[in-house]
């Protein structure tokens, strides 16, 4: 899936020195801005995910995949496409500065997650580590980083690195079921710089959107982005992307599709793993960037 992706490249100076291990214990240099952020969000950082956990044999994760997207009760109709937050002008997503430098995404993870939830999050992150050059690394003193936490507002993320310091990724309890690890992968792919597949500028060549059967409060989730807002990286449309809505997303009548494929009879979307095209897009953006 050629997810609508931020063309993001800005290897701005990273002030931290990385030893090269994802397992190092973070030594936080807590600025006044960071302290104010933590106080305003009640964020308490937990221990980073260990290398042992990231390399565990996840035998029980993703074994009961359900044919669904992110639960609609975990979607916010006020957010862009239901689970995307913006900071400033959306058009800036085409700017190179939205790519995480050196394919490293520093993070802090809330102490409020259970061991089972941490395992699901680790499973999702391990998919990136095993199949792309992207690395989620425990934050030390980086200015820009993710805070993975329970907001109480469902599943959502910003798109790309937005250069505001602490950048939230919300994964509430309903976003981390062991049977659907793709929800976490989905939100992390937003954080890496991608929009939903069905909003690509060229989507009308591949799908028809049945607006007559879409719940009114979610109609904006199906608006098409323009070439001035996003790039497809020159890669094919991906019906099976972890970023693609299912065929009856936000339907008034679940028996009538809201997204109709125009080529063949593919299954739309899935929440099991990053698709082959998802991986191609991530690698094109971060590992072999053309610009």
Q: What is the overall number of helices?
A: 5
Low-confidence stretches: 1-15, 17-29, 87-93
Mean pLDDT: 80
Major β-sheet profile: 6 strands, mixed
Per DSSP E runs of 2 or more residues, the count of β-strands stands at 8
Q: Please give the radius of gyration in angstroms.
A: 18 Å
Spatial order of the strands in the main sheet?
A: 1-5-6-4-2-3
Helical proportion, percent range: 10-25%
Question: Helices and strands: which structural class?
Answer: alpha/beta
- Reading the helices and strands in chain order gives HHEEHEEEEHEEH
The termini sit apart by: 20 Å
Q: Indicate the proportion of strand residues.
A: 5-15%
Shape: globular
Quickly list its features.
six-stranded mixed sheet; 5 helices; alpha/beta; single chain; 291 residues; 11% strand; two-stranded antiparallel ribbon
